[in-house]
Amino acid sequence: MIILGEPMDHPRRVVSHVRVAGLFIDGNRFHQQRELWRLAGEGSEIHNNGITVQSVNDSVVENVTCARNRSGGLVTTLGVRRLTVRELTAFDNEFDGLACYETRTVCSRNCICTTIREPAFRWIWPSTTMSSATPF
User: Fold this and answer.
1) What share of the chain is helix, strand, coil (3-state, %, to 5)?
2) Are 121 and 93 in contact (CB under 8 A)?
3) With the CA atoms of 8, 95, 80 and 46 taken in that order, what torsion angle do they form, in degrees rounded to the nearest 10?
4) Please, what sign has the CA dihedral across residues 91, 47, 57, 119?
5) How large is the greatest C-alpha to C-alpha distance in the chain, in angstroms?
6) Are 56 and 83 in contact (CB under 8 A)?
7) Could you list the pLDDT tens digit for every one of the 136 residues in the chain?
């Protein structure tokens, strides 16, 4: 599991210009007893996603596979802006392959996502903008 941004419900700062590339993440779903990865003292809830991106700007996730996660494959939230996702493969996750919550702009290209019981792609919250065009 990878967390881009501060691992809390109310991040204090925005992280920018991060790149995650060339990974295979096996979430080991069958050995995870809960969907929540961590419950911090202040009540933060981080889901057991392959990659969680929150409060991050101008960043890239490319050539990544997220498989068998207890929650989702790649999930963005808490004010993500201008994220480029290229060559994402997400399969056999309990929920979404790629989900965007409270996210302003995501540019995706060549993404293959399948899930067990939820939509493979999910865009939620006003102003989520998806593009398959040339990334920024």
Assistant:
1) 0, 55, 45
2) no
3) 10
4) positive
5) 42
6) yes
7) 899 998 888 888 999 999 999 999 999 988 988 888 665 565 577 889 999 999 999 999 999 999 999 999 999 999 899 999 999 999 999 988 898 888 888 888 888 887 666 666 666 655 455 555 444 3
